[in-house]
Design brief:
By secondary structure, this protein is of the alpha/beta class. It has twelve helices and twelve strands. The protein has a ten-stranded mixed beta sheet, with helices on both faces. Strand 10 (252-258), helix 10 (266-276) and strand 11 (281-287) form a beta-alpha-beta unit. Helix 4 (129-140) packs across helix 5 (164-175), helix 6 packs parallel to helix 9 and helix 10 (266-276) packs parallel to helix 11. It starts with 10 loop residues before the first helix and ends in a 10-residue tail after the last helix. The structure holds S-adenosyl-L-homocysteine (SAH). S-adenosyl-L-homocysteine is lined by residues 111, 113, 115-116, 155, 159, 190-192, 213, 255, 257, 286, 288-289, 291, 331-332.
Length: 351
């Protein structure tokens, strides 16, 4: 049993089965989420026989750190191996006062976006809620004493809305006072735009920030870049996003990866401006991070500036995403693939 699995036999039930008082659950959770310990044995205010019993019945970590890399800008990336030897990645981002965990939701991805490294081999499986919580804790433990994670973005590998049943318990654990205490306002779920799942999120009761990956302002181009769009269509993606905004009153984010010669021309910017006009939204422009073996290129500076200028002229609220940790391939499924090809240094096994 994974101690971090939020739904798996509740710790409270296990304690009562063992004739132990419920306050121990709180104590144990405080160690798991509020400290940097790595083993049950370090839970010093828990009686030693209970620590032994926990270590016997529960796993603390289910992942193994395969590589840990750090870029000059403070971005850190972990390549984790799961119990079935599948690999996922997660990233710690440092920006001013923010300490953001970027987590994966699936091994691989089924959406097939043509420029993205994560989906090249399709989806292998959904991550469990515990595996998602574990990524947060692994990343939190990279921070120095006195620092804690402040934000979570579900922008790693996978399509989070295709794994909502496990994502929601993981995020709810992150939000709890005796969890990581990260409020839903500081959590962003990035999606390719699956209307049914967005509608489900719109029912609440907890509202996370939603980022919708648009990448094109018309169906012709979006169908090419985001194959699932063929059966969905931009119109229903936007309708679901608007309904989510009405229900949650959370400002929407739209993501748009700039691909040289594909969706980065003046006419694309103009069409995008018309599409987004009148919405309470932030447009996140992401210059393409090249993926080895794929034919797409990053636009040059001039093209990007021109694209930004057209949208700004039309009053669109823009954020141009700076490249974070690109030296360590902290972007978009690149490390896992790299790790499969090269022999990488294996960090010592943590219990
Ligand atoms: N499945 C989710 C999460 C994907 S990762 C989604 O589609 O939103 C988060 C963002 O990074 C998405 O907008 C994705 O399209 C984008 N992305 C993927 N590969 C990229 C690359 N090589 N360069 C820049 N952005 C990329």
């Amino acid at each position: 049993m994974h101690i971090l699995e939020p739904e798996n036999p509740l710790l409270e039930r296990w304690l009562s089965d063992h004739g132990l008082p419920p306050f121990r659950a709180k104590q144990i959770r405080r160690w798991l989420f509020g400290s940097k310990i790595e083993t049950f044995r370090e839970m010093t205010n828990v009686p030693s026989d209970l620590r032994e019993a926990l270590a016997h019945d529960f796993q603390f970590w289910t992942t193994r750190i395969v590589t840990h890399s750090r870029a000059e800008d403070g971005t850190e990336k972990l390549l984790l191996e799961l119990t079935d030897r599948q690999r996922i990645e997660c990233v710690l981002l440092r920006e001013a006062n923010r300490r953001t965990a970027c987590i994966s939701s699936q091994v691989g991805c089924a959406m097939g976006c043509v420029f993205c490294a994560s989906g090249l081999d399709g989806v292998v499986r959904n991550l469990t809620a515990g595996e998602m919580v574990e990524q947060m804790l692994r990343l939190g433990r990279l921070l120095p004493e006195g620092e804690r994670l402040s934000h979570i973005v579900v922008m790693g590998m996978g399509e989070p809305l295709a794994n909502l049943d496990r994502l929601l318990p993981a995020l709810s654990q992150a939000g709890k006072k005796d969890g990581l205490g990260i409020s839903p306002r500081r959590v962003t779920i990035s999606t390719v735009g699956l209307p049914d799942a967005i509608n489900r999120l719109a029912m609440g009761p907890t509202y996370y920030n939603l980022a919708v990956s648009l990448h094109a302002a018309d169906d012709a181009i979006r169908n090419q870049l985001v194959p699932v769009n063929k059966t969905i269509g931009l119109r229903s993606v936007l309708k679901a996003a608007d309904d989510y905004f009405s229900a949650s009153r959370r400002r929407l984010t739209f993501e748009y990866v700039l691909l040289d010669g594909v969706n980065d021309r003046k006419e694309h910017a103009a069409r995008l401006a018309s599409l987004l006009a009148g919405r309470t939204a932030l447009l996140n422009l992401i210059p393409y991070n090249r993926v080895a073996g794929l034919p797409y290129q990053t636009p040059n500076r001039e093209t990007i500036d021109q694209f930004v200028a057209i949208l700004e002229d039309r009053g669109i609220n823009i954020q141009l995403r700076r490249r974070k940790g690109s030296r360590i391939d902290a972007a978009c499924g690149q490390l896992r693939r790299g790790g499969q090809e090269e022999s990488t240094e294996i960090a010592p096994l943590k219990p």
